[in-house]
Amino acid sequence: MKHSIIIGGAGFIGSNLTSELLLCGNQVTVIDNLSRGLRAYISEHLKNERFKFFNFDVAIRQQCDDAFENAHKIAKIDEVWHLAANSDIPAGVSNPDIDHKDTFLSTFEILIQLKKYNIPTLHFASSSAIYGDFGDEKIYETIGPLLPISNYGAMKLASEAQITAACESNLNRANIFRFPNVVGVPATHGVILDFVNKLKTNREELAVLGNGTQKKAYLHVSDLVSAMKLITTKESPHKALLVNIGPIDDGVTVKWIAEKVVERINPKARILYGEGSKGWTGDVPKFNYSTDRLKSFGWSPGLSSSESILKAIDEIAKHEGF
Amino acid sequence: MKHSIIIGGAGFIGSNLTSELLLCGNQVTVIDNLSRGLRAYISEHLKNERFKFFNFDVAIRQQCDDAFENAHKIAKIDEVWHLAANSDIPAGVSNPDIDHKDTFLSTFEILIQLKKYNIPTLHFASSSAIYGDFGDEKIYETIGPLLPISNYGAMKLASEAQITAACESNLNRANIFRFPNVVGVPATHGVILDFVNKLKTNREELAVLGNGTQKKAYLHVSDLVSAMKLITTKESPHKALLVNIGPIDDGVTVKWIAEKVVERINPKARILYGEGSKGWTGDVPKFNYSTDRLKSFGWSPGLSSSESILKAIDEIAKHEGF
């Protein structure tokens, strides 16, 4: 029985992955500091004898030590999924300490444990944000130079760099998944939750950051989990395998999302747009993501960007009581 | 009068830059934790009224605060040169905390001060180590993917990423210099010093890590300083300007260097080679560096790799009493 550790397993994507790996028959140990994740997201598994949860902050040396010591006592650790990060980009822009601790140091400390316990495999949730702004240019995994425009993207790239260096010394295989915008439940952040919450406060009006023309691709969390699982089953000539994950379409605009959220919550609400094509500092306005490598592994998403968004709007609206 | 801060200004490259910027008429403030740098390397300037030295460790928040507060009191800060780092790659492999603190956190903390004091310009000593191992492929600044194979390279890439993110929010211009192997005095580390020191201990024998076939390009520190100075005078359409700095030749082998050091110190000494083409974990065995961008700014080095090495061997040998 494979023993999988999921760091950040009580978060949005982590809790979906936890359910999936338990379904696959793995022994699953979730380590989460519950800064953005919630115990409620994983509470359904607490009676499962193949599941264990530890509330530790891996960005803190002593807690990371304790977490891995506890996990190792359950069974030899076969793989670590590192999904812990600060996912709130604007928060990291105003206070860089947040990205440093939750996104960078978490990776740094986990790598120390991988070496200590001789754990051969790491799966890492990186991000399209590591690329920065390439405008209309197609973004392959091999593109350069990498000029992230947010601390979030910087700390994800910094994490990738640490991981590739670890592949040179002790890791056997690292899958570095460069995530797109992911939607679904339990949502902890993101444009849909933001819009739904705004309409919860004021049902008549929805204020949108930027002019709404930003177009981005979105993947439903169920598709993301299936893509990652697929890649973990594939051989690779590279110890560090970089893979863009995303839908195969161009995406949808913020304006379209705003309209669909309004339609679902209160069709009479007015939408008020801001100025500029960027929503906030560090937001990449345009994004042409290549998923050729992912497709070469035989993968295709179940849902398009628009289908993913519509499904997530409904899921989040229900979750928020609409 | 331009006020330049040099972090790491008491180190090998920093002390050479300090002399040069003082010659140019700048007000120069050196901040150094003296972990690898030495007060002796800058003591000749202590009586210069345009020079000030502060012994602070910028990787520690309170000390970085104090350092910039002191520097700011002298005069408004126009530019910061960030040359502080752990330059001992094997040390960082065995203890990642060293690279994290001295190479990564120094950048992180300096960026907080640049924002606080509204300092528009940063010059950063990055490294060819951010590229990882591209074999025979020509390494342009735009190459990808970036897969560093040492913690040193990882933390330099992590620093670059933070700097490009800062260009999006508060920095007006960042020159990111990707250094080659640099030689000269006052040497604090590197292959020549290593060989000279070994012959100091045992005049009859020189043990070389690896089989000596590693071929690398070397630049003399005087050429490096002149290249950086040139680039700082050039306009750039990019806020973050990446520039490979290096000689225009292919470089020399470790074997050649060992022979030349033996020739200079004790021609009768035997050279003993190890195995493998890598000297240590994290060492990139082959390296084909493009300096086309640097040349496009009108630069050409004064010395070739072999001339740089010969000059540095003589300088270091003299310095070590031979």
Please give a structural write-up.
2 copies of one chain form a homodimer. The first copy, chain A, is built from 10 helices and 15 strands. With 322 residues, chain A is an alpha/beta fold. In chain A, the strands form 5 sheets. The first copy, chain A, has a 7-stranded parallel β-sheet, with helices on both faces. A two-stranded parallel sheet of chain A has the order 6-15. In chain A, helix 1 links the parallel strand 1 and strand 2. In chain A, helix 6 packs across helix 8. Chains A and B meet through helix 4 and helix 5 of A and helix 4 and helix 5 of B.
User: What is the alpha-carbon Rg of chain A in Å?
Assistant: 19 Å
Q: How many strands, what sense, and barrel or not for the largest sheet of chain A?
A: 7 strands, parallel
Strand order of the largest sheet of chain A: 3-2-1-4-5-7-12
Please state the structural category of chain A: alpha/beta
**Total E-strand runs of chain A:** 15
Largest interface: A-B, 36 and 36 residues
Helix content of chain A: 25-40%
Q: What does the average pLDDT of chain A come to? A: 94
Regarding quaternary structure, what we see is homodimer
Number of helices of chain A: 10
